[in-house]
Design a protein that fits this description.
The protein is α+β, with helices and mostly antiparallel strands and 278 residues long. 45% of the residues lie in helices and 13% in strands. The strands form two sheets. The protein has a five-stranded mixed sheet with strand order 2-1-3-4-5. The protein has a two-stranded antiparallel sheet with strand order 6-7. The structure holds zinc ion. Zinc ion (ZN) binds next to loops.
Amino acid sequence: MTRKEQMFCNEGNLPTHVPSARDICTKSSRYGYMAGMSYLCIVLPVFIATSYFSIHVYHKMDNHWFMQVIVPEEMPDALKAGMDRGGVSSALQQEILQLAEFHTYPAPGVLIGAFMVDYAMELLGVTKGRKLYGVCETPKCLPDALQVMAHITIGNNRLKIVPIGKFAITINLPSEDGIADAVRVYVDLEKLKKYPTIEIWYANSPAFDKKTMKGQLFDEIFCAGRNILSFERVRVTVKKKEKWSSVTCLCCGETVPDYLIEGDRCGACSSMKYYAKI
Ligand SMILES: [Zn+2]
């Protein structure tokens, strides 16, 4: 007998236990259970996450809303449904969607800002296309509503941001007199009491959970519209355009308007220095 034959005939290598039909069934049901559990724990969540990502991110990218983490309440369709429920006019709905896209996502502050600008323009008796000036009392969210809806922009130099920290805007028509009558619209804390979710969000309260309460917040914002706002007639000073000449900074050799030179240096070489050369 060869060594190979010996190996095959070696009794010690023979299985001592022949599996019965019951054993096979138990084993296969165990495999079935394990397969089921892996499906539930691994495959299904991965499938759901992938579908969510592909549907929502693709849709969002299609709308150029790809800068932020997406939640279902922020999707244009969901916003539109919320605005329908709140009775927002279709014209304002369009503006709100454009504004949210410009802002890269529908921040609650931007949505409230849309109602503020819409209200302020109506109070001032102006429609789109009029040359307007504005002041915004916070750098957060609200300036974008003035920029997109009233074309009061940083770039056209008609928007002034005063970082007071209030959710308020003032808009006025051009004036040659050095002063102008204006309308100031602000979020009225007294009126917020009717809208508990907006109230706790606005107060930056820990009671507001943005993971679970965003939809509710949007619903209240759309339902409230102007009802959380108040206004006052005010007067603002208007700066006249001044003539200027160009001067050269002795430090960097670049030029700036004369009214911005600090001694013999430009802002970047003195008080407004914000970069180091590499
Ligand atoms: Zn300089």
